Amino acid sequence: MNHRRINPVRQHARVLTASLVGTAVEFYDFYIYATAAALVIGPLFFPKQSPAAAVLLSFMTFGLAFVARPVGAIAFGHFGDRVGRKSTLVASLMLMGGSTLAIGFLPTYAMAGPIAPALLCLLRFGQGFGLGGEWGGASLLAVENAPKGWEARFGAAPQLGAPLGFLVANGLFLILSLTLAPADFAAWGWRIPFLASAVLVLLGMWVRLKIGETAVFRAALEAAPPPRVPVGALLRGYPGAVVAGTAGVVACFAIFYLGTTFALSFATTHLGFAMQRFLALQLVANFALAAGIVVAGTWADRTSPARVLAIGAALTMLVGLGFGSGLASGSVPLVLLTLGSALFVMGLAYGPLGAWLPTLYPTAVRYTGISIAFNCGGIIGGALAPFAASWLAANGGVAYVGLFLTLAGALTLAGVTLAPRRGGAK
Asked: Domain tally for the chain?
């Protein structure tokens, strides 16, 4: 048999599945919390004297995990660059999944008083800490195993975990909202998605324990011992790449959390949408995200990841000009078009990241480098997005919400344009 004719995707199916499952769990975990933050976290875990303050505090706990992610990126990046990709990925998935599962058992403010939000914040930090090492390792697992010419398509595999995790989380919330009375959902139904995360985590663990270390990492260890402190070596030798990589990530996070968390909260509280109806709209728009990622991966292998990412960033700026007005229209077709367009553009800005970020750093500090860049970019584009959008909508009108996307796109475009060029990820 001529092995060169074997489809690389089939040949590396286990590795690609392992990288995809982890990020599916990541986005499932984060989106179920984002949805809960938009719908029930504020009233359940904070005093009820001020509903507006409860919503803001709810979004602040959402943002807390983004603060924890760079800390986790440094910790897991240290072991990922010194010990290996596989074992580090297993550990990050255990911490991430365990924290998510525990949120499903938390007492509410009515049950435990101030200890309830304190425990919630602790588990959100643990969730973000574990997530800090997840995406970087999953991307390297795919890209460092990719045949030549397939790096972007393999690097897009972890990104496809985003629409998959979103689909499962959104679908589960939609089913619960259709089958449970609002009082039952607020009392106990919101816990089900957190408890159900255990199934996805066990699946991810089973797949990851069956794969080996990447050949690129093994070759790097044979060539030279790993740095004693990878983050120190990274910041001393490649500070420009860290800044550029961080900027390059901002746009995709901004689109995702404005198009999901903020949009759901705004539509159900200000536009009169029923939760079930808007969740269904987001579910349909989610397929545009998957399509954007597939297009980006294929396009980037034919051109370059940097070029596709730059185009995605420029389109993000354009989407921002009409995002707020499209959402505020209240027209179902226009809202769906707004969400679908935004998430498709997100796919163009998100799909190339798995292949682009590794080119900025050498193998010895690559896990640390891409993890820090991805998660620091997440703070700017993700943690600030719902909070900034809520503030802009309240103080300037919803038309100004898209301004955040325009600024995020400009920042990502600058990062891609100014990024130092090292070559390939091998």
From this structure: 1
3-state secondary structure 357-419: HHHHCCHHHHHHHHHHHHHHHHHHHHHHHHHHHHHHHHHCCHHHCHHHHHHHHHHHHHHHHHC
| pLDDT at site 11 | 64
CATH number at residue 377: 1.20.1250.20
Q: Which residue reads 């796919």 in tokens?
A: 347
CA distances from 196 to 32, 95, 168, 276, 332 (A): 11, 16, 10, 20, 31
Structure tokens at 48: 């009820």
Find out whether 135 and 80 touch, Cβ atoms under 8 Å.
Answer: no
Burial 235-252 (b: 16+ CB within 10 A, else e): eeebeebbbbbbbbbbbb
Question: Could you tell me if 317 and 413 are in contact, meaning their C-beta atoms sit under 8 angstroms apart?
Answer: yes
Spatial contact of 360 and 235, defined as CB atoms under 8 Å apart:
no
Q: Which domain holds residue 147?
A: 3-418
Q: How far apart are CA 334 and CA 337, in angstroms?
A: 5
d(CA 145, CA 224): 20
Distances (CA, A) of 294 to 25, 31, 308, 346: 19, 21, 12, 12
pLDDT per residue over 208-220, tens digit each?
Answer: 888 878 888 888 8
Locate 307 and state its tokens.
Answer: 């070029």
pLDDT at site 2 = 47
423 inside domain: no
Alpha helices in 83-150 (DSSP H): 85-103, 109-112, 115-131, 134-143
Angstrom distance (rounded) from CA 232 to CA 218: 22
Closest CA to 77 of 222, 200, 226, 206: 226
